[in-house]
Amino acid sequence: MIFDIAVLGGGPAGMAAATEAACGGARVALLEESPAPGGQVYRAPPLGFVTKPDRDRQEGDALRAALAASGATIHTGCRVWGLGGGPLVPEGQANTPFSLSALAADGAPFTVQARALILCCGTHERIIPFPGWTLPGVIGLAAATILLKAQGVLPGRRVVVAGAGPLLYAVAAKLLTGGASVAAVVDAATQVEWLRALPALAARADLLAQGAVWRAKLLAARVPILAGAQVTAAEGDNALKRVRVGERIIEADALCIGHGLVPATEATRTFRALHVHRPEDGGWVPVLDAHQRTSVPLLYAAGDGAGVRGAAAAPAAGRVAALTALQDLGIHAGAPERLSTENAALARARRAGAAMARMMALRPAMIEAIPPETIICRCEGVTRAKIEEAAAAGAGTINQLKHFTRCGMGPCQGRMCGEAAGALLANARGVSVADLGFATGRIPLRPVPMASILGDFDYADIPVPAPAPI
Amino acid sequence: MKARFDAAVIGAGVMGCATALFLARGGMRVVLLDRGEICREASGVNAGTLTMQMTRAALIPYALHAHEMWMNMPAWCAGGDVLATACPGLSVAFTDAEAAMLEERARIRREAGAPIELIDGRAAQVIEPGLADGVKLAGHCPIDGFASAYLTGRAFRAALQEAGVTLMEAIPVRGIDGRFVLDTPAGVIAAQRVVLAGGVWLEDMAAWLGVTLPIKVLINQLVVTERLPPVMRTVLGVASGLLSLKQYANGTVLIGGGWQGIGDRARGGLAVRPENFLGNVRLAAHTVPALRNARVVRSWLGLEAETADALPAIGPVPGIDDAWIIGSVHSGYTSGPYMGRILAQAILGEAPELPLFPINRLLQERSNAI
Amino acid sequence: MSLRLPNVARPAPVTIMVHGAPIVAYPGESLAAALIAAGHWRFGEGEDPARPRTAFCMMGVCQQCLLRVDGRLVQACLTPVAAGQEVTPA
């Protein structure tokens, strides 16, 4: 069967897109990597876990309930590794339906085909490396949120929270509530930067109030807040023991650190959609029209994967993408009014999101401060010094840097190091990050176990092509 | 217009780089241009196989010389290194039909100078303990090996600079007016000689000179695993040539063999074909069962050029003095640096160590546009 | 003090074997969370002492938390705990 619309990613954008599309009369399939839809912010607790629902949980539950009632086919716990079809066809052939190759939760392979594809792939964390960031006990800020909110586990008993953006205070407050001691909050932003963000944030009074509550909690617990500061080293033998912030040494058994969010563009890159580098959106993002269309026909992107605007802005974007796809497929002609409503909602939610995204944009001074022997590419063990050596030896693009150093060639395929490596290379070459290009998108989207895709086969069944001439 | 350069080499792949390097070492002022970056097309993304058992018989004498060059690359390339590793090579047959094919191919290659002996499956497993059971016959060649092809650009770059070659990356040549004025976005570049070294784009380049040289484009798929404990220690292939398998020192296993993906000259390597991806990894896992425990990290594509008779296009461009061409060498990476060396010898007026592959045989029609 | 938040109702605990020693965990929680809660931040040695295996992104991206469960390579952050799992380094 060929679905009308497939949605890749079951975060707030994906849930809303699939719901809107299914309610609009399309046959819809949603594919999500986690055991339940929700995404990172609205993540559901594991089955059988019960917690007091907070605001995010309520938002997530509402989206989950609507999705469940929509009639969309939902694949959770699946690993989508292969992308094909669409524009990926031989020369001169018309586009074909999109195809997604996946492994189900039990490891069984399956394929979903669809006429249109909405990518809601979310973000991953940006980390600006520092000595010791690879020590056990150092964890991402978004990772800490997942650990605390979805899993109900504290990362440590005495924790340093560091980096940039509102997640800092959310994580610190949550740690205090959970009974941990917060040894310090190390905020890359200065008070002045926060004050400058205020007018835009005022569009979301709820967020402002929430932020005030978090700060009050930290104040009451006398948590030191180091503004305009950054972690200079994490130290310990087998695991984290101490965090250095300049001259200051802070004992800690966990460090939660993140420097913003990076849109996950591997799928749009694989489909050869046009991309543009926009630091305020988190880095490289697919070029979209006003209705979430990418440059590839019948391929749409929504949510943070199309530019970081936060979970609150994502559902409206997902709905706009779905309504546009319904129109483009000729399934639903009555969508224009809905579209303008959702577009207005999107514009409002985006203003606050944009202010937050600016706080989380990559900070050049932090890149400059990375000591030469610091590991940048964790998969391959490539240091800043090696990247700069490659730059001096002639590496002038991200793809060339990969060849010169293996930076970004490991299992994460540059998702964790790409931002820092790009900034370092750009500085060393005296060009902008946009001039370096981005890593070519290739399948698999995630490392895929050979055993799972091989299946049972006989040697005689392998369609070995005709041999080359001798 | 006064020529700034004695020679302009267009296309900075392994053959263009080697030609430019040896021309410069021979005393010429050389400019090497590429529309992209040095060795970022086939020369940087191929499987790095340095084997005799996938090489066309006619090319084996060249490949043997090139093998030696690869293994000693730092010595002639100003320290540039592609981590070339010598190891035995095995080409295996799982069926009677493959065994027959293997016998014939091994014989022809042996006659061409490759020291290939035929052994049984058990003997093959002694040489390669990672090899599956069920091998009926194997070709064993002690001269084999592999390189990290992605290092090729880095390896050549320093040597080119040391030799005084002017390397112009990201400068696409748009055409050639007169003898020889190259039209580029960076302005015109004049050279007394021109060498076309454009891989699958040779057809377009030949057209600049009014020469029609049909070049077929192969879209070869490659797949790499994440780092694994040692599972193999040879270069492994199958009788048909449609598998190349080796494990690098860093533990990654590269799976190739020329299974075809989707792409073309204009769009490059666009996407792997899922059914060919599956076929290729199944063939690999059938040959080295321990690969079942691996995870695939990435696939990609490399564009290989092929002439009508699948033999190289290396030599003068007929009818146009001082215009030369190099490319379309089957398993071209293996033989590449040696091909560049002998073409440079010819351009420098010396007798090449081994014969070139003149393209007269391939030309359908010709007009002297210049 | 337990690292597990007290105000979460969980299913009945189970035992899993981690590098040969039993730990208590809750079915459905991620293996990465279970290991962290048990004080096992170091999931394996990896190939470089400077980059041991551990949880970092918790969302399936970074590939640092690779482990074997009953011999199968998995990402600990994406793998739910189930009774009797045998966890060994990748």
Give a short synopsis of this structure.
Chain A has 470 residues and is α/β, with parallel strands linked by helices.
Task: Please tag this protein with its features.
heterotrimer, A: 470 residues, alpha/beta, FAD/NAD(P)-binding domain, Arc Repressor Mutant, subunit A, 3 domains, seven-stranded mixed β-sheet, five-stranded parallel β-sheet, 14 helices, 34% helix, globular, C: 90 residues, mainly beta, Ubiquitin-like (UB roll), five-stranded mixed β-sheet, 24% strand
Q: Secondary-structure blueprint of this entry?
A:
The complex is a heterotrimer of chains A (470), B (370) and C (90).
Chain A: E1 2-8, H1 12-23, E2 28-31, H2 55-70, E3 73-75, E4 79-86, E5 96-103, E6 109-119, E7 123-125, E8 138-140, H3 141-150, E9 158-163, H4 167-177, E10 181-187, H5 191-201, H6 205-220, E11 225-227, E12 233-235, E13 242-245, E14 248-251, E15 254-258, E16 261-263, H7 266-270, E17 275-278, E18 283-286, E19 299-301, H8 314-329, H9 336-359, H10 364-368, E20 375-377, E21 382-383, H11 384-392, H12 398-405, H13 418-429, E22 448-449, H14 450-454
Parallel strand pairs in A: 1-2, 1-6, 2-3, 6-19, 8-15, 9-10, 9-15, 10-11
Antiparallel strand pairs in A: 4-5, 5-6, 7-16, 12-13, 13-14, 17-18, 20-21
Chain B: E1 5-10, H1 14-25, E2 30-33, H2 42-45, H3 60-71, H4 73-76, E3 85-93, H5 96-111, E4 117-119, H6 121-127, E5 137-146, H7 152-162, E6 166-168, E7 175-177, E8 181-184, E9 187-196, H8 202-208, E10 216-225, E11 235-238, E12 244-247, E13 253-256, E14 262-264, E15 268-271, H9 274-287, E16 295-306, E17 313-316, E18 323-327, H10 332-347
Parallel strand pairs in B: 1-2, 1-9, 2-6, 3-11, 9-18
Antiparallel strand pairs in B: 3-5, 4-5, 7-8, 8-9, 10-13, 10-16, 11-12, 12-13, 14-15, 17-18
Helix pairs in contact in B: 1-7, 1-10, 3-10
Chain C: E1 14-18, E2 21-25, H1 31-37, E3 66-69, E4 72-75, E5 86-89
Parallel strand pairs in C: 1-5
Antiparallel strand pairs in C: 1-2, 3-4, 3-5
